[in-house]
Amino acid sequence: MTPQNSIPECIVSKDERWVKQITPKTDDFSRWYLEIIQKTELADYAPMKGMMVIRPYGYAIWENIQRLMDKRIKATGHVNAYFPLFIPESFLQKEAEHVQGFSPEVAWVTSGGKEELEERLAVRPTSEAIIGPMYSKWIKSWRDLPVLINQWANIVRWEKVTRPFLRTTEFLWQEGHTCHETFEEAQKETLLILDLYKEFVETELAIPVLAGRKTWREKFAGAQETYAIEALMSDGKALQMGTSHNLGQHFSKVFNIRFEDRGQNLQYAWQTSWGVSTRLVGALIMAHGDDSGLRLPPHIAPVQAVIIPISMGNWKETVLPAARTIEDLLKKVGLRVELDAREEFTPGWKFSEYEMRGVPLRIEIGPRDVKSNQAVLVRRDTMKKETAPLDALSAKVPVLLEDIQTSLYREAGEFLKQNTHKALSYGEFKEIFETKRGFVKSLWCGGEACEDKIKDETLATIRVIPLESEGQSIQGACVCCGREAKTLAYFARAY
């Protein structure tokens, strides 16, 4: 994690933050976001428009996300596989709604070497069209069901407007594709994964989310129903964090995925698909970051604790051995720890660097600490300091890291609560979006005309219809048209 391109300015005043080079997010949130990505070396711009290079620090975060998510996916009975990157055009064209939904974003391969291809190949924008034909070969009987397959892959969508991690031409994700005997089983799978995503994001990323169904207009192209988790970023905009789709039998009919049921009749399989992507890294920045840089939850931080020896006097003979002992102790209890013993940078410079990179805990040890048999612990979430005996660190640090994880989630939850509003009238609704930020919870008639009007006049869209309101009797009027409401909905401006 050696810095290469940028050296943060740092000061020694205890009354000011160390990092001074990042634009305050209240001044320019977009610039703040992009500066953090580059200065913390999460990613860099690739030579091709709209593409990024995920640098080692950013990829380490994604690897931790992948590891923790993959464990959950496999625990629910799913297995991993891999399908081709290229999809024949005829496959993609088979499902009209699907191809129409992705047509503007599809990248095409038209030649191989010097030869023109007889049929264009799409670079996968999603994999339903290549997985479907394979499932039609593999599934013959109800005994072959369910098929529970996930893949970790890259996706290409030719986006017009891009932003690192949030929306890029190429990105990384996992996509699950399952087949079932009945609609009920497919629906159970869809909601199972929605719950898995919610639990994962809240537990590991420390970001509270709203879970619910998307409107017909916002659903995945070709799906029967789409469900999503939505989070509130610290600028008050919503971000879709993951989706789970009940595909019904649309794709199984297109690709002839049929099985002989228990009564020896041919039936089309019921399918689902679901995924989360490297967008989660962008969410971490926007949900937890502050004016000094990243604040990473310990569960996914590449480095959970950094040890910084104070280089004074004969520190190599006195301080450095103690720092190495701390490193060994913490690694033995399974923590991701780094000891920064570089001589070319001052301790103050290192404080600034690791603060900006969002390392959850800084452990400082100097000559006086060695004499006192203690170390100074500095939390990144609150910047609070405390001392602890050296022989207590292996027990103290894991507990402190869990407290930091909980603290970040609690802080984000309080922000969500404070920025979720209710609106009964359209005038109140519009005023909230003109003067405040966040989610607005209101009743909706279910009509696309109201959905369109709200989007045109406020730039807000329906993010989710909460699961708890499904099937419930709704009393009240639509916030937009005043007619009888059919459901409750969460509205927000979104990325």
Form type: globular
Largest sheet entry: 11 strands, mixed
Low-confidence stretches: 1-18
**Secondary structure tally: strands:** 23
Q: Approximately how much helix is present in the residues? A: 25-40%
CATH class of the largest domain: Alpha Beta
- Beta-strand fraction estimate: 25-35%
Strand order of the largest sheet: 3-7-8-14-11-10-9-22-23-21-20
Full CATH superfamily name of the largest domain: Bira Bifunctional Protein, Domain 2
Which oligomeric form is depicted? single chain
How would you classify the helix and strand content by structural class? alpha+beta
Q: Quickly give the CATH architecture of the largest domain.
A: 2-Layer Sandwich
The Rg value, from CA coordinates, equals 25 Å
Tally of individual domains? 3
Distance between the termini: 30 Å
Could you report the average pLDDT, rounded to the nearest whole number? 94
CATH topology of the largest domain: BirA Bifunctional Protein, domain 2
Number of helices: 14
List the defining traits of the structure above.
3 domains, Rossmann fold, Translation Initiation Factor IF3, alpha+beta, single chain, 495 residues, disordered N terminus, five-stranded mixed β-sheet, globular
How would you describe this protein?
It is a single chain. The protein is α+β, with helices and mostly antiparallel strands. It has three domains: 43-288, Bira Bifunctional Protein, Domain 2 (BirA Bifunctional Protein, domain 2); 305-401, 3-Layer(aba) Sandwich (Rossmann fold), CATH 3.40.50.800; 420-492, Translation Initiation Factor IF3, CATH 3.30.110. It is built from 14 helices and 23 strands. Strands 3-7-8-14-11-10-9-22-23-21-20 form an eleven-stranded mixed sheet, with helices on both faces. It has a five-stranded mixed sheet with strand order 16-15-17-18-19, sandwiched between helices. A hairpin with a 6-residue loop joins strand 1 (43-45) and strand 2. Mean pLDDT is 94; it is low at 1-18.
